[in-house]
Design goal:
about 500 residues; mainly beta; 6-stranded antiparallel beta sheet
Length: about 500
């Protein structure tokens, strides 16, 4: 740790982009019964929209911090009979509980134990702040640098850290598990499995009852950020971009991740039936970092991987080792194609969505097979100006719907000084055709310092919201969320 860095002990947050304006910590827990609704909530929408966010509880220990290091704050909107209730609650991680008792920050920089105070030297710094998992009738808050925390789906109270009854061997667990819509199986993974920088990846198969049916490890080309992955009917695929962790740099108090543009990007494909014994490796023909994924599917012997890819690292958060002034490049929708029926090591890369985007989503019922409809967060200067940069970079101004059959993109523009967040698709009914349903997204109303949840016709975004659920306050900008149908909520198995 840099001994010349001043340690914060008061309750004043720093005058920094991460802690002011619309990005400022909210820190409010509570419940709003019957949100104001503009329009009408579709009566078919019965269930829970729930998402995770990073909301700093205390000013950062060393004066500055990145937004990724905030404490897990979960926001739940429960929709019943055309009414909506809001619940907001922190995840009671070990880190949260220790700091709340001390009434100040004790843990230091993002994932860097060497910057923590001595009294928490051996404590877990998991913030459980990235995404939400619903599987085998249980609700979890996820952060890829730690184990899941189980939550009560009724009031979001924390039930505790989970190792799935002793089945989870790794000290970490992905924030992006994948679900097989046919079998109900969950495929998940962990990296930095022992809680320190490592080239090991652990892959899990979890059946619909929550039993681990397979746990295997393999080695990556180097220790890199593996935030997301892809699963098709018969394969699991990992893209490794050179957002690397050098443990010696971490020990010196430097950021946990750095971008190394002189390394090669790689892809590995694992058969779901054979596991890591059947692993295949491919060199990506360009410098690439997968941001988030749409879907993986198969066309005969070809494996198709649809994802957003950038040719730089996440430089707004983590520096380039070779060029500290390098600029972050935007992600585009790419389709990577590998022929699994041959011995070819070639990856064919096509840009299939020629528009900047992030936070991708498909109709989850169509996961692991070819899809027509794709939704994502984006901008469109023709509809409205860009918003000022925030701690995550340029905010979205729009949501986009790409119809691959027509080749057209339809946009929802959130309005002046408004920014939508990650969308989520909810089908109109279990047997509705692909893409027939609603798109849900939180929208930050900057000028009003307030948040809405908007409900859109998923195949006609430009028509505007079917309903707007108005929050009486701002909630912190979030990362990833899910929808849980009402009929599934009765399956809480605690």
């Amino acid at each position: 740790m840099n001994k010349h860095v001043q340690i914060q002990t008061g309750m004043q947050f720093p005058d920094d982009i991460v802690f002011k304006g619309y990005a400022a910590p909210v820190r409010i827990e509570g419940h709003v019964h019957d949100l104001e609704v503009i329009g009408r909530i579709p009566l078919e929408l019965e269930g829970m929209y729930i998402r995770n966010s990073a909301d700093h509880t205390y000013p950062p220990l060393h004066g500055k911090d990145i937004f990724l290091n905030g404490d897990g704050m979960v926001h739940m909107v429960r929709i019943q009979n055309g009414h909506a209730d809001l619940t907001m609650r922190y995840v009671r991680t070990r880190k949260f509980e220790i700091e709340r008792e001390a009434r100040r920050a004790l843990f230091g920089a993002y994932r860097n134990r060497f910057t923590d105070l001595p009294e928490v030297k051996d404590e877990d710094n998991n913030t459980a702040n990235t995404s939400i998992m619903w599987h085998h009738g249980k609700l979890y808050a996820l952060k890829e640098s730690g184990r899941p925390y189980e939550l009560d789906p009724n009031d979001l109270s924390t039930r505790g850290e989970s190792d799935f009854g002793g089945q989870l061997k790794s000290k970490t667990f992905t924030a992006h598990p994948k679900y097989d819509p046919i079998t109900g199986e969950c495929v998940a993974f962990a990296y930095n499995c022992e809680g320190v920088a490592s080239d090991e990846i652990e892959v899990y198969n979890i059946d619909k009852e929550g039993q681990f049916t397979r746990t295997e490890r393999f080695k990556a080309p180097y220790c890199s950020m593996v935030h997301d992955f892809l699963v098709s009917r018969n394969f699991v695929a990992f893209a490794f971009g050179p957002m690397i962790c050098d443990w010696e740099r971490v020990k010196r108090g430097e950021p946990y991740w750095h971008w190394d543009s002189k390394r090669t990007s790689h892809l590995c494909v694992i058969p779901r039936d054979k596991g890591v014994a059947g692993i295949s490796w491919f060199k990506v023909p360009k410098l690439a970092m997968q941001t988030h994924t749409f879907n993986a599917w198969e066309d005969g012997g070809r494996l198709i991987l649809d994802q957003f890819v950038t040719e730089s690292g996440w430089l707004s958060q983590f520096p380039d080792i070779h060029d500290p002034h390098a600029h972050e490049l935007p992600p585009y929708g790419e389709r990577w194609i590998v022929d699994m029926s041959s011995q070819s090591e070639t990856i064919e890369i096509r840009r299939f969505i020629n528009h900047i985007g992030e936070m991708p989503v498909i109709d989850p019922r169509y996961a692991m097979r070819k899809t027509r409809h794709f939704w994502f967060g984006t901008t469109n200067p023709a509809l409205g100006p860009m918003l000022p940069f925030g701690p995550k970079g340029p905010p979205f101004t729009c949501l986009g719907h790409f119809d691959e059959e027509t080749g057209k993109i339809d946009f929802f523009y959130a309005g002046p000084d408004a920014a939508p967040e990650e969308p989520y698709f909810v089908p109109r009914s279990a047997n509705a055709e692909e893409g027939d349903g609603w798109l849900l997204s939180m929208v930050g109303r900057r000028a009003e310092n307030r948040t809405d949840l908007v409900i859109l016709n998923a195949r006609n975004l430009s028509a505007g919201p079917v309903a707007i659920l108005k929050f009486p306050c701002r909630v912190h900008e979030g990362f990833h969320g899910i929808w849980i149908p009402a009929e599934d909520l009765g399956a809480d198995r605690h």
